[in-house]
Amino acid sequence: MKSSRNSMTRNSTKSERPDYFKNAEEDKDWWMLRYHHLYDLLDAHAPGKRLLDIGSGPGYFIEAGRDHGWEVLGFEPSRMAAEYTRKRGLTVVNELFTLASAKQHGTFDAVLAEPCAGTSARSDWPD
Questions:
Q1: Which end of the chain is less congested by CB atoms within 10 angstroms, N or C?
Q2: What contacts 102, CB < 8 A, 6 or more positions away?
Q3: Which residue has the higher pLDDT, 23 or 6?
């Protein structure tokens, strides 16, 4: 399975759009409003303040979490997106999310896993 994950990461790097971040930045204010609202809900209902974002993209969701005082971690297979996120002082793991990699980072009080390659159709995850 490892070679398949590496292949997926290489393939996602080859298909990255250089203009993605320019376009994402144009919509950032809207995304941040949405994400701050979601963190208001999490603040009211989550048992703690540790969040994992699977497929964190440009890192706006984890940035909003940091603004709300959460300990946040993103998993992002795109090298460009991971570098973009790190340049803004956020913590992101540049690899596909797997059960094995999750165990290395402990437990979380909330997880965001929007549909993304490598996370939505896994048959080896525990119930």
A1: C
A2: 52
A3: 23
For the chain, the first-to-last Cα distance in angstroms comes to 20
Domain-embedded: residue 17: yes
Is residue 124 situated within a structural domain?
no
Q: What is the pLDDT of residues 45-104, one digit of tens each?
A: 999 999 999 999 999 999 999 999 999 999 999 999 999 999 999 999 999 999 888 889
- SS in 3 state form for 52-75? EEECCCCCHHHHHHHHCCCEEEEE
Question: Structural domain of residue 82, as residue ranges?
Answer: 2-113
- The label of the residue with tokens 């990461």 reads 9
DSSP state of 95: S
When divided into structural domains, the chain yields a total of 1
pTM for the predicted model, two decimal places? 0.75
Can you tell me the distance from the alpha carbon of 18 to that of 30, in angstroms, rounded to the nearest whole number? 21
Look at residue 68 and give its three-state secondary structure. Answer: coil
CA angle centred on 91, ends 74 and 2, rounded to 5°: 55
